[in-house]
Amino acid sequence: METPALDIDLPDDLRAMRAAARRFTERELEPWAQEIDRLGEIPPGVFELMQKNGYCGMRLPVEYGGGGLTLFQYCIALEEFSRLHRAFTIAANYSSGMTPMALVRHGTPAHKDRFLRGFATGRLKSGFALTEPDAGSDAAGMRTNAQRRGDRWVLNGRKHYISGGHVADVIMVMAVTDPDKRARGGITAFLVEPGMPGFSVTRVDTTIATDAIKLAELTFADCELPDSAVVGEVGNGFKVAMGSLNDGRMSVSCSCVGAAESLVERSIEHVKTRRTFGKLLAERQAIQWMLADSAVDIAAARALCYDVLRRIERGEKVGSAGSMCKLFCSEMVGRVADRAVQIHGGMGVIRGFPVERFYRDVRHYRVGEGASEIQRIVIARDLLRGVKIDD
Ligand SMILES: Cc1cc2nc3c(=O)[nH]c(=O)nc-3n(C[C@H](O)[C@H](O)[C@H](O)COP(=O)(O)OP(=O)(O)OC[C@H]3O[C@@H](n4cnc5c(N)ncnc54)[C@H](O)[C@@H]3O)c2cc1C
To answer: Number of folded domains in the chain?
Structure first.
């Protein structure tokens, strides 16, 4: 939004990143937004376009064909994409999300050579499988297990709600390898690829949001894996996954900021032309106050996120600050979307109208990547360090 009240101090590299990502989004991605809604999926053309313009594998090292972006720079790009359509942030995550970044940090040279290059060229998509029917927030309670049989691992179990699990070319699957230790050294990360015997996609769920986001159920029935499928050390799977946790929280948070800003801009456009009882909606105090509340929400969210991203960039430990961002931003965008629908009246609930899509799309943010309640638990534990909490 073009107002000094919402401006924020940013170094030149990030301003340039924002300007380039905004240009790309408005000029190149814009025509694809409707196509994505029409098809209910992200067509290959989007990945080709992103790759051609340097937006595939943004966070991967340059030596593997990636963009070498910092988390802050990546988050700025996601903020811009999410101003248009949530699907573009999903597309970016396939090549720079949890699994690619776990491979950057813990992968063997062979993993990096094979997969990172594939992500950077837009040829490969990644998935990450932690959640199970009986283990969601309480992920350490997972039942999927891998047992040693000769020189192989044999994987059995079921994961669900896996983003893009039905189209992923490689999925990092978390499984119990030592039931006595579980989260404390008994969970291992494995790479599973489609076509491996014993691995199948057994269901694909659509959700309240755009059909471009689909969640898959994955079943493993005596799925045999070689040692080379292990990411990091055996038993260290939770560490491998949790290492990318702050990345995920920050990228979701900034996506919320971008979506919220877009909703307010669309609302401002609307109230400047819509008349009721002989006056513009923009002249009504009830409407002005909704816009003002949303602007304050966005400014607070952005300031919080950028401060935490700066600290992460400086290598500081941020404790539960990533959870604070995820909690505040995901709830903030819900409030902003609700006000935007109200401001648009009937138009705000008509299928196919962007505000209505945003309203549905942003509801995910309070559940995925650790629900709001779980973020509150993380923050409270940080505050109450030293107090024994049993649950
Ligand atoms: C859009 C989307 C994409 C997703 N993508 C992936 C993916 O790619 N990979 C993957 O592994 N998972 C994925 N998930 C799954 C997601 O991580 C889980 O849905 C989430 O962790 C919550 O688990 P659950 O659905 O089992 O809910 P539950 O754990 O059953 O929780 C239900 C409710 O109870 C609350 N709750 C739980 N425990 C407590 C407690 N101790 N105190 C208070 N409240 C509590 C929760 O916050 C929630 O509101 C995705 C989910 C969504 C919505």
So the answer is: 3
Ligand 1 proximity of 128 Cβ (cutoff 6 Å): yes
Please determine, for residue 219, whether its predicted confidence score (pLDDT) is greater than 70.
yes
| 184 and 89 housed in the same domain | no
Full residue range of the structural domain in which residue 57 is found: 4-120
374 lines ligand 1 (CB under 6 A): yes
Residues 320 and 195 both lie in one domain: no
Q: Is the dihedral of CA 300, 301, 306, 311 positive or negative?
A: positive
Q: Give the position, in ligand 1's atom list, of the atom nearest the Cα of 138.
A: 29
**pTM for this one?**
0.97
Q: How far is the CA of 370 from the centre of ligand 1 (A)?
A: 6
Could you tell me which of 122, 129, 124 has the C-alpha nearest to residue 143?
Answer: 129
pLDDT in tens, 141-182: 999 999 999 999 999 999 999 999 999 999 999 999 999 999
Contact 266, 225 (CB under 8 A): no
- Tell whether 312 is covered by a domain: yes
Cα radius of gyration (the chain): 21
Same domain, 296 and 347: yes
What is the whole-number distance in angstroms between the Cα of residue 163 and the centre of ligand 1? 13
pLDDT at 387 > cutoff 90:
no
pLDDT value, residue 391: 61
Give the list of residues 6+ apart from residue 127 with CB closer than 8 angstroms, or none.
99, 162, 163, 164, 165, 168, 170, 171, 172, 216
